[in-house]
Structure formats: C-alpha cells, structure tokens
Amino acid sequence: MEENKRLEIEFKTTVIRFFKNFLEKADKFSETLEDMRETLEDMEKDQLEIKHTLTEIKNIIQTPNSKLEERKNQVKDLKYKEAKITQLEKLKEKRIQKFEDSVRSLWDNFKRTNIRIMGVPEEEREQDTENLFEEIMTKNFPHLPLSLDGLNMLSDSSMGLLDPSVEETFRDNRL
C-alpha cells in the first residue's frame, strides 16, 4: 500500500505539475494572444491611415487630370458658343441686308412715283396748304363738314344727333 500511496502521490504530483505547466503556458498564450490583438488593432489603425493617405494621394493625382478635363470641356463649350454666336451674327447680318434691300427698293419706288394733285389748277398749287386741303375735301367729299368746330360739335352731341343750327351751318358751307 505504501507503494500505491507513493504512486498515487507521484501521479497527483505529475498531474499537478502538468496542470501547473498547462496554466503557465495558457497564461503565456493569453499574453501572446493579447499582444497579438494589440498588434492587430495597431495594424488596423495603420491600415486606415494608409487608406486615407492613398485617397489623398489619388485626389492629388486626379486633381490636375480633372482640372485638365474641366478646361478641355470649357474650351469645347466656348467653341460651341462661339460657333453659335457667329451663326446668330450671320443670321442678323442677312436680316439687316434684307431690310436694307427692302428699304432701298421702297425708296427707289417712292422716288419714281410722281404724286400729282388731280383737279387742282397750277396757280392754286402755290396756295396755302390748308386751303388746298379744304378744296380737295369739298370736291371729293361734299357731305363731310369742313370746319373743325363743327367736328367738335358733332363729337359733343348726344347719341350722334346733330343740332339743327349746326346742320344749317354745314349745309351753308357745303353749298
């Protein structure tokens, strides 16, 4: 039995040593694992920083390219606008030319026509313009009133009816 006890004690000692070694190794593994987690977190932070730096670098690289593209697009837009403006100017010039031609044609036609006053003898042409106008009006439109006062009275009369005294005045002037 002593030997059993001794074997039992040795077994227990071996098991205790084994667990003790196991716990020490587990602690070391735990420390190593914690160090690895910290290292991994540091690496993730570094990776994020690298991503941001790469993004900044890409932006810096793309900025001249994008500005160049913008400038090219602006040049294209300006060329298009210039072509459009020159086209509009050409249309305006054509319209102006047409207007000038029509004015010239009208002026030529006007210069060619002889305006003659029909039915008025030559001596009377030198008369006052108002007298000439009145004579022409009385010959061509005998039923129209001649004086402007009579016209004012006509416009003042109600319902377009003439005052009998005004009618007599017009009859006398026409005859």
Automatic annotation (TrEMBL):
Taxonomic superkingdom: Eukaryota
Coiled coil recorded as keyword: yes
InterPro entries named among the record's database cross-references: TORC_C (IPR024785), Transposase_22 (IPR004244)
Residue intervals of the Transducer of regulated CREB activity C-terminal domain: 116-175
Pfam families recorded: TORC_C (PF12886)
Coiled coil regions, renumbered to chain: 26-53
Keywords: Coiled coil
Protein's UniProt name: Transducer of regulated CREB activity C-terminal domain-containing protein
Originating species: Cnephaeus nilssonii (Northern bat)
